[in-house]
Amino acid sequence: MVADRSAVSTIAGYFYQFDRSILSILGLTGANDSVAIECIEDIDIHTATETTAVQCKYYEKSEYNHSIIKPAIMFMLAHYKAGLTADRPTIQYQLSGHFASGQDKLVLPFDIGFLKANFLTTTSKEKTVKKHEELGVSDAELEDFLKLLSIDVNAAKFDDQFQTIIESLAKQFGCSPFAAEFFYYNSALRVIKELAIEPGEALRVITRADFIKRIDTSSYLFDEWFIAKLGTAKYYRGLRNEFFATGVNVSPAERLFIIHAADDSYSRNTVKTLLKTISRKYSKLSKRDAKPFSPYVLLVGIDDSELAGLKQELHNEDVRFVDGYDFKGAQFDAGSISRPASYAAAGPALRLFCDLAEARQTFLSFQRSREIYEFYRSEPVEDFGDGAIRHTRFQIPKYEDIDKII
Length: 406
Fold this sequence. Notes:
It comes from Sphingobium terrigena. This protein is an alpha/beta fold.
């Protein structure tokens, strides 16, 4: 259990740092201001007038002690001294941390005597090491270093910092808090992760404008870090509530579900059950319905022989579906697959496309309301090319989980 708690704390620390990076980027004001990820420190903020190297500490369950931040201050001093030796411009150093308690042990500001005793001296049984002497830093240089150093051990709580990000993103994109979290924050995590693993420092630098451009996507993008933070159940529940919560009140529309069934986990029974669920939930075929309708489905990644077997079982189980082929050897007929829905036996409860070209041909011919919901794992299909079609993409780890969303 101790190991588990330690792992949770470590993960929380990573997310806290990622969130601080996002917040730092969103807080940039100048057109050329930028943030560098994992360069001098966790976050380096570059403005027209100065550079600030920021290190983040998150210890939600721990009491503050000088020893916790001592290594970080030693590293900052070493960087400061190296900069003097190399005649580099001075930079600002910022240490930001959140602790459960004990913040009153650090009284700010402090002098170089306090700095030496509490942050630069390490004592063991064998010897006492004074970092400032080891680096050859004079008292005058320590005074200068203190002017460049700022410490905040009362940084925002994890949830408070996260809420600030969501509010900032909602304001930036003029969207709801849900969209800010599930679309833009999700995408922001992905961008920060991509920046952090770039091999060259120059590639880990981004301006606010470029960051906004990279996270502003019309597709819904899954990211492993986002789901790890949120939890799979909450992730799926959020998608369902936002996009598929209408239930029996679903409105009439030409509605297409694109499902990418992964080869390595394909199951005919799973796909068949999913098709029946889509048909049941997104059809209205009773005599009471003034405008009967039923959904379309395009299965991606299934070969022709398996499609034939799947359709045969659907037929055997009395699922009323059409696929645009009215007889053996016939050419695809968009008019046939889009025939009017009705409560009568001839009215299809499901419309099953065999390939993307047929789906595109059919949907581009419609003038009425059209919606596409695509569930993919690696690459979505190309856009249909008509801005009037609402095409929402959901990247999910397992196609088997689609029924938990719809």
